[in-house]
Every structure is written in C-alpha cells, then in structure tokens.
User: Fold this.
Amino acid sequence: MSSGWLGSQRNRFNSATSTSSNLSGSSDAFDPELFAATGMTVESERLGAAITRTRDWMLDNQHPDGFWVGELEGDTILESEYILLLTWLGRGESEEVQRCARYIEQQQISDGGWAIYPGGPLEISASVKAYWAMKIAGYAPGEECMRRAREAILAAGGAEKMNSFTRFYFALLGQISYSQCPAVPPELILIPGWCPFNVYEMSAWSRTILVPLSLMWSFRPVSKLRDEWNVPELFVDSPESLPRTMPPSEVLDELKSGSKFNWQAFFNGVDLTLKTLESCRIRPLRQVAIRRATQWMMDRFEGSDGLGAIFPPIVWSVIALRCLGYEEDSPEVQGQLDELKDLVISEGDTDRLQPCKSPVWDTAIATIALRDAGVPAEHPSLKRTVDWLLDKEVRRSGDWAVRNSETEPAGWYFEFNNEFYPDVDDTCMVLMALARCLPNQPEWDADFLVDDWSPHEADKDVTAVLAARNADAVLAAVQVDGLRPMLGAMHRGARWILAMQSKDGGWGAFDRDNVRKLFTQVPFADHNAMIDPSTADLTARMLEMFSYLNVPADHPVVRRAIDFVWKDQDPEHCWYGRWGVNYLYGTWQCLVGLTRIGMPLTDARIRKAANWLKSVQRDSGGWGETPRSYDDPTLKGQGPPTASQTAWAILGLIAAGEGESESVAQGIEYLLDSQNEDGTWDEEWWTGTGFPKVFYLKYHLYRISFPLMALSRYARLRSRV
Assistant:
C-alpha cells in the first residue's frame, strides 16, 4: 500500500509501544482488576472497581454490529418545527402532534418561555415556535402555560425578534408574506466557483439548508391555517408591520473593524432588489436554477440518512419536494419523512426528536475509552468495532472535493450514513481509535511515511507501510494481508486530513478555507453559522492524531497547526471551545494535542493553561461550565459541575504533567463519589455545542466515555508511581 515519495521522513508507529510513551496516551498493559488487587490502598480499590463497572457497562451496551450510539438531545425547536411541518402537510390533528406538544410543555421554563439549554434564558425564536406548536395541538390561549408564554414572548420583544428560519415557517403557514423573509433565490446555485459569493463558500450545514429553502422560496407555498391556529397575539405590533429587512446579524469576525463600508446596508439593498425583481417576475434563469438545485438536492439523498443527515435540511427538502410536485406518498417524500421519524424518541405519552444520530463519533470515543480501560485490541467487541468503522469509510467524492479535487476520497462522517459530508473531527477520532486497535504484538510494525508537503502544493503524498517480523515468511505475508484493510483506511484518512488543512494552519469541520467573512453579514446569517473557519479545538485534535501516527512536531503541516493553536490561546491562557462547552472543552483538547505532539511541559503557555484549569475547579472537586459563557466571557469555566467536563479538565491536567496534583486527585474523587452503581454518571447540564449562541446539544454518552478515559489514565499514572 505504498506510493511514490520523495524526501520522506520515516516515522515509526509501533502499536505495542508508541501509545504508552506519553501519560496522556494509553498502555495496553493496564488492567483495572489487577491494579485494584495489587495497589494495596483503598483509593486503588475504589478506582479499579469504578473503571471495571463503567467498562462493563460500555461492553454490555454495545450494539451487536459493533457500534455505540447514545441519544443526541436538542432543544424544543426540533419538536416545534416538526409540528409545523406536519401541520403544513395536513396532519395538525395527529397523535404525533399531541405527543410532541406534551413534551414541549414539559420543557417550559419558569419565566414562561423556552430556553435552548437547561438553565438558559428565554430564547425568542424557540419560544415563539413552542407557543405556536402548542396552540396548534389544542392548548387554549387562556391556559396558564400559554398565558405565561405569551407574556414572556411579548416582554422579550415579540415575534418581531424571531430569526430568519422562523420567519420562513410563518410565511409557509400564512402568518406573514414571503417578502418579509430573506430572499433566497435558487439562482444562487448557478453562481460559478470562481465568484467569491457561491454556495461552496458557505458552511456545509448552511449549504444543505439553503438549496431546498431556495426551492421553497421560488414556489412560495402557503397553507392557510384555521383561525384558532393563527398567532397574531405574539406580535407587539402586528404581523403586517414586520419589516421586510432583517435586523443586523451578529458580527462573528472583524469584518466591520476598521471599515467604513456598511455591509449590512449593502446586503439589505441586495435583498430588497431581489424581492423587487421577483415581484416583477424578472427571473430569466429561474427554470434552469430550479432544475440545477433539484438535481443537487436529489444527488445528496443518495448514501445519506436524509439530506445532510440532519433535521433542518430534511424538513426543508420535504417542503421543496412537495413544491416540485412530488406527492406525499412518493418514494422521495416518504424517504425523507421516514428519516425524520427515525429521529423520534418516544417516552411515555411524549415524543422528542434528535437533530441527527452520532454513531461514528460515539463509537470512536467509546473505543478509545475502552482501550484506556485495558480492553485488549484483540477483544471480540473491539474487533467488531473495527469492522464496523472500516465499513463506514467514505469512498466517494463529496462537497469537500470542490477544493480538493485531486485528493482520494476518504474520511468518516458523524451519522450512520452521510457520504457527501465526511468531517475532519470524526475522521480524526476514528483514526485514533483504529490506531489504538492495531494488534498488540511485538512482531508488528506499522510505519507512516509522511512527505514534507504542503496541502496547497502539487506534491501531496503520505504513505503507510506495514511490515510483519516473523521467521516464517509465509505467515508474515498472511499477517500483513490481514491488516491491509485497516492500515489502508488509516493511510487514506491521514492523507485526506492533511489535504483538508486550511491556509491558516488550522482545520474547519467540513471544508478547507471556508472563511469568507462576507457571509456573516448577509440577512440570512442570523444563525451565526454561515462559515466553517479553522478552530483551535479541531486543530489540536489533529495534533493528537498526528502523534498516534508519529508525525513529528517539525513536520511543516504540524508546525503550521501548532502555530495556529498557540495564536488562538486566550489572554487568560485558556482556549475557546467551538465544538464543546466551552473553554473547558477547548483547553482540554489543546493541552492534550500540544503535549502529545511534543510541546514541552515546561512551556510557560502550557503551565498557565494548566493553572487556569485549576483556578476554575469547583469546591466539589468537579468542573463545570454553562453554555452562557459563549455570550458572557466572564463565565469562562463557570457553571455546575458535570461528569464530562470534569473528565476533560482531568485529562487536560494529566496531559500537562499535573496528574499527581491535588486538583486532579479532587477531580477523581468527584467522579468516584458521583458514579452510579451501574458505572454511569448522571448529567443534567448540556456540554455539547452545535452552533454557539444558537444551538446546543447533550451527548448522552459523554457522561460515560470521557469519565472512563479520565479514571483509566489516572489509574495508569498511579500504577507507575
């Protein structure tokens, strides 16, 4: 499985030894039962028993096919929008609507509205849609829950403050006109790639929403509701008075800094111009655009659990298909509706929905945790896991290939099926999981030969070489052939990751150099996620992964990545966490990535980051941080302690050489004291991030996998003392 290379630096990757060379890694020799039996202390017995309980729970809860998947919990926006979709489809009186509405009612907060994470403040769009959904389900405006909700919404500025997505639902169901929504013409799909304002310059998740939404905007479907389902009472003024332009979007970057040009006014002008042309029926390319957008959408149904494999694009694709003339019972529409139904979780007399499913992500993390806990690579459970993960490798081009057309398809996605959208985070985590599952035998060597190349130059090569040392040449050849699929996948995944590095040295989630700041100013951008720029937490995870492949710190790709992470360190010496809450997540991952790749523990920046983690430890010994820290930086590292965030802090401190500190000991004690009898932990608060300030997540397996990692790595450290 080698390819031509020039000037390669040979880097040893030995499955038997490499991962034990750093305390933030793992040792295959660690055995929790043996450690507990021979440690001769109460502490070690408790620790070993705790690890064993969680390890056994993980093994018992593995799917027979080899994967793990926990619930991915979102806020009531999902249930509300599902009700609105069903209402538009003529199912407003269905049992599905009733069950979702009962769940929405249960989530109402004390001030009468709805939050987007536990303990959070009222969020206006979530609250408006929740009230409306409950009204459709039969809740009378005079009921106490509805009265409190209405008063809270009006006190917060009313439906006038709702975001662009909510406006589209209001237009769809006849509450406002489409002229009061941002213009999303399908002609956007025709803008060529050389133009700085094309669909591939926006984030992958925005792209998958915008294309079907543009079809809806073109046809402008309206379903007139019963009078008793309308919600004019949610407006401070009236629906008719809602401005045709959107309020200023939040500035996520420095676009306005030092510039006298008013981009907001510019884009509002463009928006109004497009609406004027639309009203005058000046749209010569409309039919071509509809055909192109339709084909784009249909192509991405293939190999995917619905468009983009996530809730919002699936909903908009259902609406788009109906606009295009597809009957509700057609295979196309039913296929998307079935994917939505598959996201429903029924419990008692309520239904709630997941935004998507996370099996690849959950499985990779669980695998690493189990290897940390001493489960051998040869264990049947992990062998099934490896086979399942290998089967999920992407082998077709997707949207990422627009900027990497010469790169061989590879990588892994988040969900069960989403072949157009592998992402670097999942790919990175899977590569580490696979590396940890190479045979733990001394006769195996796996070398990755990594060229000194830039992903922005013509020569792009990384080679994986597998060799077996065995006196019997025939047996050695058989052994090599047996591992060829695994090493081949790792080889391709490593090359794909390298090709996805952005020019700034970091990595975004789905695309390379997805940094067009102009998109953050468009009227449609009020969900604050129009671009997918490099982030420190993702980049540091790449560094961690490179350490598993023994790519050296002086490799050009790694050097740029290290520089990016250092530059992103906060003045308080922590790191912002884009994909988890928040500074605890970012600081943990950056410390692990930097130290594993070889940054010295004595570096002042590492010491200060470790001290920051210790400074925000709670009196209970745990760590916690509220999602509110995205809005209020003074809340960095502040919040009720959770099992997952405590584990991240412990892992970060161990990586920074603080494994024997009092802070870590107290954190371990917190985990031991709060563990349930079955080896799990309870976690009320949410620690996952979809879009900062807009959408948060609760990964139900985070509270199990990460504490298992932390306890196991601490135990291994203690066993060496």
DSSP finds 23 helices and eight strands in the chain. Residues 473-499 form the longest helix (27 residues). The first strand starts at residue 9 and ends at 13.
